[in-house]
Design a protein that fits this description.
By secondary structure, the chain is an alpha/beta fold. Helices cover 45% and strands 12% of the residues. The chain has helices at 26-38, 58-75, 88-101, 118-132, 143-146, 152-159, 176-183, 199-204, 219-230, 234-251, 258-266, 284-295, and strands at residues 9-13, 43-46, 78-82, 106-110, 137-141, 164-169, 190-193, 209-211. α9 packs antiparallel against α10 and α11 (258-266) crosses α12.
C-alpha cells in the first residue's frame, strides 16, 4: 500500500480576472494558470474563495474549470475544484457533474457553512458525499468562515472515509489539534496548509504542502519554500518563510482577493483589479505596500 498522499507541494487557488466592466477575462486566466504551473506549482485550485466563486454564473464557472483543466492537462498537473454548499444533496449533484466532466483530481469541499450542523452532522455530510459524489474529496476546515471547529477526532474520522484524500487546514492557528493532526497522519491522507502567513511552520511541522492564495504573486518562491522544508534545508526555509509571511500579511491586509488582484494588475498580469460586490477594490496604499514586497524576488541560494 502506498503510504504517501497523492497531493503534495504547492496548489495555487487562482483569482478570476475581470475586465473593467466586470466581465470574465478568460485569456488572462489562461495566462495565470500557465504561469503558476510553469513556476513550480503542483496544481491549481479553481472556484475557491480566492476565485470569487460565489459571484460567478454557472456558465462562468464552467469556463473557469475548462481553462484550468486545459492548463493542468498540458503540464500533467492536478486540478482541484471548489464545491461550496451547505446542502448535502446539492453538493452530491455538483460532485457528480464534476466527475462527468473529467480531468478533476479532487473537489475541495468546506465543512457545511452557516448551518453549523456540529461535528456528527459534518461527518455524516462528508460520508454521504464520499459514498454518492463519485469524486475524491479534500475537506476544507476553515472555522472562521464555516462557524464551527473540527476536533482532531473528527478529522481522524473524516480521514478514514473512503474517497476523502486530504484536508485544507485553515484554522488560523497552529494549536493542539494541528499538532495531533500532523503527529499521527493517516496513510494516503494529505494535510495542506491554508493559512498563508503560517505556511512555513506548518510545513516544517509535517504538512504535505499548501493551498496558498499569496502564491498567485510569487509562485516560484512559495513552491521553493515547501521544497526546502521537504528536503530538510531548515535554515534557508526559515529565511524564505519569514520573508513570504510578510508578503502574505500585506496581501491579506484587506479582504481576499482584493489586494492580490491589485498587485497582479500593477504587474500588468490581469486587465483590471476589479472585484464583484460585495467586495470592494483594495485601497491604493495597501496595494502599493504589497506590490513592493511582491517585487522583491527572493535571492536565497537553493541547496543542491
Amino acid at each position: 500500500m502506498n503510504l504517501d498522499p497523492i497531493f503534495n507541494g504547492l496548489y495555487v487557488p487562482l483569482v478570476t480576472p475581470f475586465t473593467t466592466d466586470l466581465r470574465l477575462a478568460p485569456d488572462a486566466l489562461a495566462r495565470l494558470a500557465e504561469e503558476a504551473l510553469s513556476s513550480g506549482a503542483s496544481g491549481l485550485v479553481a472556484l475557491g474563495t480566492t476565485a470569487e466563486s460565489a459571484t460567478l454564473t454557472a456558465e462562468e464557472k464552467q469556463t473557469v474549470v475548462r481553462i484550468c483543466s486545459a492548463a493542468c492537462r498540458a503540464h500533467s498537473a492536478q486540478l482541484i475544484v471548489g464545491v461550496g454548499t451547505n446542502d448535502t444533496a446539492t453538493a452530491i449533484t455538483s460532485l457528480r457533474e464534476l466527475e462527468a466532466a473529467g480531468d478533476v483530481a479532487a473537489a475541495l469541499v468546506p465543512a457545511p457553512p452557516y448551518i453549523r450542523p456540529g461535528e456528527a452532522g459534518t461527518l455524516a455530510h462528508f460520508t454521504a458525499l464520499a459514498e454518492h459524489g463519485g469524486m475524491p474529496l479534500i475537506v476544507y476546515d476553515i472555522p472562521y468562515r464555516t462557524g464551527q471547529t473540527l476536533s482532531a477526532g473528527t478529522i481522524a474520522g473524516l480521514s478514514r472515509l473512503p474517497g476523502v484524500v486530504g484536508i485544507k487546514h485553515a484554522t488560523g492557528v497552529i494549536d493542539a489539534t494541528t499538532v495531533e493532526l500532523l503527529g499521527a497522519p493517516q496513510p494516503g491522507f494529505a494535510v495542506l496548509g491554508g493559512d498563508d502567513v503560517v505556511i512555513s511552520p506548518l510545513v516544517a511541522a509535517g504538512a504535505h504542502g499548501g493551498i496558498i492564495a499569496s502564491a498567485n504573486v510569487r509562485t516560484a518562491d512559495y513552491a521553493e519554500l515547501i521544497s526546502l522544508w521537504h528536503r530538510g534545508f531548515a535554515a534557508p526555509a526559515r529565511r524564505l518563510g519569514a520573508e513570504l509571511a510578510r508578503l502574505s500579511t500585506a496581501l491579506f491586509a484587506e479582504p481576499n482577493p482584493t489586494v492580490i488582484k491589485g498587485v497582479l494588475h500593477a504587474q500588468e498580469r490581469i486587465p483590471s483589479p476589479a472585484v464583484r460586490l460585495p467586495l470592494l477594490a483594495a485601497s491604493t496604499s495597501t496595494v502599493h505596500r504589497a506590490a513592493l514586497l511582491a517585487g522583491s524576488r527572493a535571492r536565497h541560494a537553493s541547496p543542491v
